[in-house]
Amino acid sequence: MGSVRNRPVSRRSFFTLIEIMIVVVIIGLIMTLVGPDVIKKLKKAQSATARNQIHLLGNAIDDYYLDLSTYPSKMEDLIANPGNPKWDGPYLKPPKIPKDPWGAEYGYRNPGTQNKGGIDAWSPGPDGQEGNADDVGNWNLEESDKPGGP
Fold first, then answer.
1. How many domains does the structure of the chain reveal?
2. How confident is the prediction along the chain (150 residues), in pLDDT tens digits per residue?
3. Using H for helix, E for strand and C for coil, what is the string for the chain?
4. What is the CATH number of the domain that holds 68?
5. Structural domain includes residue 150
6. Residue 130 domain-assigned (yes or no)
7. In a domain, 12, yes or no
8. pTM over 0.70
């Protein structure tokens, strides 16, 4: 009887160009359906982060006020003693004041012009320009969450 020749089963170890193109088209379709929702959620998350950071900055400013009976003249006074013996900081974690979610510096004004009787703390928002509708400030947080003011 003759010997049966064992041939190894040939396995494909590569993808054809057509298969790769089909996968890319499918991924593209998924991204067009899901992409806008992801971007919208990212923008909401950045705004929520800015509101939360302003709230935390306001709490630090309020703590400073409780210790020294005055608001800081600049935000850096929250992390470095301005020369007052009653200073019990740092009120924020050093070494620097955080930036907003879009990479800009938070604004601070004492006395406040938006938050009468208190201070103004704000982010210029996604466009980086102060004074327009996308600004996030302690004057436009929910009423129950307004730090640094009356």
1. 1
2. 555 566 565 566 677 888 888 999 999 888 888 877 877 888 888 888 999 999 999 899 999 999 999 999 898 999 989 889 999 989 988 778 889 999 999 999 988 888 777 888 999 988 888 888 888 888 877 643 445 554
3. CCCCCCCCCCCCCCCCHHHHHHHHHHHHHHHHHHHHHHHHHHHHHHHHHHHHHHHHHHHHHHHHHHHHCCCCCCHHHHCCCCCCCCCCCCCCCCCCCCECCCCCECEEECCCCCCCCCCEEEECCCCCCCCCCCCEECCCCCHHHCCCCC
4. 3.30.700.10
5. no
6. yes
7. no
8. no
